[in-house]
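@channel sequence for tomorrow's demo:
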Amino acid sequence: MINIHELVDNLHLKDLRNETHPSIFDENEQYDMLIIRLPIIRQELEVTSIGFIITADNSYLYEREKDNFKELGNRFEAPYKILDGIIDQLLKSFERYLNLILDMEEMLYVKKTTNSFMKQWLELKHNITRIERELMSSSSTMDRVIEYYEKSDGFPINHYMDLHEHIERTLKSATLQLSKLDYLYKFFSAQENEKMNRSIYTLTIISALFLPLNLVVGFFGMNTSDLPFADGVSGTKDVAILMLCISIITIVIINFVKKKA
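structure tokens (generated this afternoon):
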């Protein structure tokens, strides 16, 4: 019986022990090593590496917690079933991100975004970018596996092509969602800019309305002699009427400019 621990090179053991080792397929004379790093979506996004040793007549799953190799009983079918379960779960759990992005899009359309919009956007952008990066590496590694084993006896090429197709499908979906997130960011920025422009416009109108009044107040507030209306009994009333007339003229001018614009 093969002692798999003695068979596997120490450098390969070090790679297998690494929980986040990149996806890799390494061919050797006595065995091949396959490591597939895949994202796992739970409450938080996690990334884990699943390692296999494939010999001429068997395959072994590396159990990281026990630092042990579990004999799988066959060369290709068992690794396929393990990876198929993980990738299927990834496909289903990725739907959660799709639904979150759809909700964000709907909130933008009805203009009901909250203060947490950008926080949620950044989290989704970061997680989906990580998923895209990991799946690109996994897809190319799976390509190498299929190419290397496609002429081997007993290799279930359709099963491994199915794995590759599922990885590619999730990868394309991730790329599409990243594009949609970029679009949502531009849409959100446009709405925020519109709000800011309206605020600036309102402040400009208020400033334009009160600037002439400030000039009048400043003029009559000077501590000098011979000011108009200073000696009359109805000076305050006259100044108030003057300020009212100036306000009306200013409003008329503003409306005229708005219609011309």
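heads up for whoever presents: The CA atoms of residues 209 and 250 lie 6 Å apart.
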